[in-house]
Each structure stands twice: as C-alpha cells, then as structure tokens.
Design goal:
By secondary structure, this protein is of the alpha/beta class. It has 2 domains: 295 residues, Zn peptidases (Aminopeptidase); 127 residues, Alpha-Beta Plaits (2-Layer Sandwich), CATH 3.30.70.360. The strands form 4 sheets. It has a 6-stranded mixed β-sheet. A 4-stranded antiparallel β-sheet has the order 10-11-9-12, covered by helices on one side. Helix 1 packs antiparallel against helix 10, helix 2 runs antiparallel to helix 4 and helix 8 crosses helix 10. The longest helix has 21 residues. The radius of gyration is 24 Å and the shape is elongated. The two termini are 19 Å apart. Its cofactor is Co(2+); Zn(2+).
Amino acid sequence: MQDDSDLGRRLEAAVLARRDDLIELTGDLIRIPTLNPPGENYREICDFLDRRLLKSGFDTRLIRAKDTPGDSEKFPRWNIVARREGTRPGECVHFNSHIDVVDVGKGWTTDPFGGALIDGRIYGRGACDMKGGLAASIIAAEAFLEVCHDFAGALEISGTGDEESGGFGGVAYLAEQGYFDPKRVQHVIIPEPLNKDRICLGHRGVWWAEIETHGEIAHGSMPFLGDCAVRHMGAVVREMEDTLFPALARKRTDMPVVPEGAKQSTLNINSIHGGQSEGAADFTGLPSPCVPDSCRMVIDRRFLIEEDIDEVQAEIRAILETVREGRANFSYDMREMHRVLPTMTEKSAPIVRTVAKAIEDTMGLEAEYVVSPGTYDQKHIDRIGRLKNCIAYGPGILDLAHKPDEYVGVDDMIQSAQVMGRSLISLLVQGDGAAANGE
C-alpha cells in the first residue's frame, strides 16, 4: 500500500494540473440552461456528462423518472448515474449533484448562462448552486483515478434533476429504485455550496401548507351584501403577527444551523391570492367589481430537530381556531402540501470524519460543522434510501445561491476537489471507512 501522505500530495498536484479543464467544464455546464421549473435541457446536460464520464472509464446509465411530479414528454425528468469499479471488493463512495437551476431573475451584470471567467470567479446561474460542485467532484474523481490505479470498492457520480423543486424527479426517484441502498452505496457526498472548510451535517425540517378562507361573492359597490375572504385572511395574518411569530422566535436549536437567524423556528408567507385571477399580460381592461369569496395563502414553516411535526401543524391550526372563535362567519380549509423531517448525520460518522481530516490535510484548517437552513437532497437519501452516512460538502458561498451575478471561485473549487480526492484515497485505498464501521 502506498504512503497516504505521498498519495495525497500527488492527488493535489493532479487536481491542480486540471485547473484549466475545471474552468472549461464548469463553464460548459453553466452554458446548458437547465431551468427548473419547468425542467429544461435535462437530457442535454445528462448527455454531456455521459460523454465526459464514459471517456474517464465509467459505466453510465441515463434514467428517466417517469410519472414523477413535473415529468412530461416536453420536460422529461432525466438523471445520470456513473459507476467505476475498483480492482477488488470494497465500499462505494457516491458524489451526488443536482443539475437543475432556478430562474435567472433581474439584476445581472453578466450573462447568466455565459460561464464567464472574471478575476478568478466563474459567473452564471448555477455556478455556485451547484454546477461548480459537480465539476469539482468530476475533477476530483478523475485525478483520483490517475493517481490510484488500485482501489477497492467503487466510485459513483450522479447528476440528478429537480432538487430545486423537491427532488422527486431526481434523488427521490433513484432512492426508490434502490440506488442509495446502504448495501449498494456506503458513503455519499453532496457538493452543495457550504464553503470549502465546512461540513454540512443535515438540514432543518419543512412543512408547507395551503390555507383557504371562504367568503361570499357580491357586487363591489355593495360589499355589505357579501363576505370578503381577503379580510378573513387578513385576520389570520394579524393573529400570526401577534402570537405565532413571537412564539417561533423563542424556539432555539442545538443544531449548528447557519446563518444565525435560522437557529430559531421560522415561518414564511410564501404567497397570498384572493379574488379574481390576474388578467393576461396583453389584457388592458379593468377587473370586474366583485367581493372575493376565496383567499388562499401558502405557508413555508421551517422547524427544528427538537420539534415534532404534529406540534408544528397544531400551532397553525390553533391560530385558525383562535380567529374562528373571535370572528363572525369565519371558515377555512387547510391542506398539507409538503413535509420533510429534519436530519443530521452524527459527527462520528465515517464520511464526516474522513472529510474533516481531508480538509485539515489540504488546507491546514479545522473543519466547521454546520446545518443548512433549507432542505436539500440528503432528505431523500436518509428517508427513502435509509442511508445515514451522508453529508453536503462543496465549493461556493451559500449566500450567493439564487442571487444575481452568482459565481464560484476557481481556487475554492480546486481546494474542494483536493479535499474530495483525499477523501477517496482515505475511503477506497486506505479503507478508513470500513475501519470506522468496525469492519
């Protein structure tokens, strides 16, 4: 067996030698506009990755998540899984990156799909979240394969869709098909942008619900003959402001959530719509004068590992019941839209310990352990795949995600790729993961 420190130095040099390739690869990925919704160009980017990974000796499989939310003939939900077997039996390390990006929005000073290199940064939608991380994992894998011809187990790389809209056409589907079964995969790294010296152990929980208040339609000149559903919803918002928001601010977690404000429970009013639908963009007339008989509000409740999902729901129900008891003719419906329980991998887990050591060996820094304020695809690997040995680690600054002029630093990608490569040496050559599992 080769000396670990010698292999590590050679790995770092192999990554550094691929700097130009890393820049080109990241730019190429950004220039494929995989906007979600609706889910554009998933097949194009999977085909691009397929060509790249086949050249590096991986066996590849393109998988369509048929009949999942959003999947259609116009916008099929394509994913790619690539696997490279080692020379002897052992564990499997899997890098999972989502290929979809959010809407561009306003305020850009660079081409959002240009992938421009400016002063050591690559700009574009998805540069940070998370095509830079995908590119870094590919470079790390290819550098590892150059340096380590003899390794145990297997190395996998996946590009999956729909993370930005829940991951149901991506990781959730693959987990249901057994791709993240612990008998098949033992270690998972998701290269989300959490900073190059941070290990993300998990995320808070989320509960989405739609609340509808009811009224009675009438002529807008005689609102006293109707019942305004929007005013009823206003009473709900007022009760939330008076009682719920202060109560949530008092709830605190021991989870190392970043940023600081996310260490408490939070509620976002995602949308409110009452009355008539907005007219088409080319309609220049006025709306008809009607009292709205329906108002709908979507809420996004983020909760802590110390909270129970039943408690989370009961708090919202209590708000609605308080309004009902004090307001004439108030009625409502509430419908759950989405739920994800909090998850957090233990610091003693093999993948955590391995990546922490790789960060120290590469950068001379002690790893910081964090938890994400929002969910990402670890939820499906944990809940459906039943695989607990999973973290998020990748280049980029989380605060830049979904923002105009999103970018990722080239030097950050280089160092993150070196950390990923060192982790592969530890797990597939030195066998530290098996040792950590007591095997």
